[in-house]
Amino acid sequence: MNMPRANTPLQRSSAFYRGLRLSMLAFWTAALAGVAQAGTLGLPDNTARIGYSAGPAYISIDAARSAPNKTWSAVQSLIYTDWFLAGTRYWAALRYQQADFDAGVNKTGAHLTSYGARLSVQNSFRVTESFSPWLGFGLDITQNNYSKQFRVDSDGYLAERFAARSTLSSGVVLNAATEWSFGRAMHAGMQLEQLLSVNDKLRETTLWASLLYRY
To answer: Where are the alpha helices (DSSP H) in the chain?
Structure first.
């Protein structure tokens, strides 16, 4: 009887890029539809913005045969955002991240490199005349590469090494953001975002600082 074979790294990589292409196709479809609908609704023609975001992230992973491991890291991303309804916008991000997890007696140390794409829909809620935060949710697809995995004994000496591994994770993101305008084209903002991975035991909370340009 033929046994099913595990996915090879090449197959996982191909699946990641297929997912990324589908995400970007959905993103551009939404962008084109948003431009057309913005004109119909009388929204400004130049609501689209591009920019850069970076900030600290608090990550938790739960590897096999290991207690949960947590650490801080820096994350950065490229942003594209545009309105597609009055008071509603999409927020697309291509992101990159590295993190180092310390090893322990029951915790596996590792170096994490991840890159992927996120697409969120956000709605503006007026709290006061001068404060209208954006609240939203979206989807995430990320390639996580774990290397330099090891465990130490109670004296701090190397006890065990593990092979590198890669996972293709999908998840749900929740976010809240606020922004300030500087002149006609420049915008700065802060965004708090929570990632809940669906098929990988990973949790991440990120505080983003963004600089956007309306063109």
So the answer is: 9-41
Handedness of CA 97, 53, 69, 15 (dihedral sign): negative
The per-residue DSSP string of 41-82 comes to HT--TT--EEEEEEEEEEEEE--TTS--EEEEEEEEEEEEEE
As a residue count, the chain comes to 215
Lowest-pLDDT range of 6-15, 29-38, 53-62, 157-166? 29-38
Contact 54, 206 (CB under 8 A): no
> What are the structure tokens assigned to 98, written together?
């590295």
pLDDT, tens digit, for every residue of 101-126? 998 888 888 999 999 999 999 999 88
Residues 46-97 have pLDDT tens digits of 789 999 999 999 999 876 666 788 999 999 999 999 998 888 999 999 999 9
Beta bridge partners of 101: 110
Kindly provide the b/e burial profile for residues 16-53, where b requires at least 16 CB atoms within 10 angstroms of the residue's own CB. beebbeebeeebeebbeebbeebeeeebeeeebbebeb
Single-letter amino acid code for the residue at 193: E
Under the phi-then-psi rule, with left for phi > 0, alpha for psi from -120 to 50, and beta for the rest, what region is 29? alpha
CA-to-CA separations, 204 to 57, 68, 128, 197, 211, in angstroms, rounded:
6, 13, 30, 9, 22
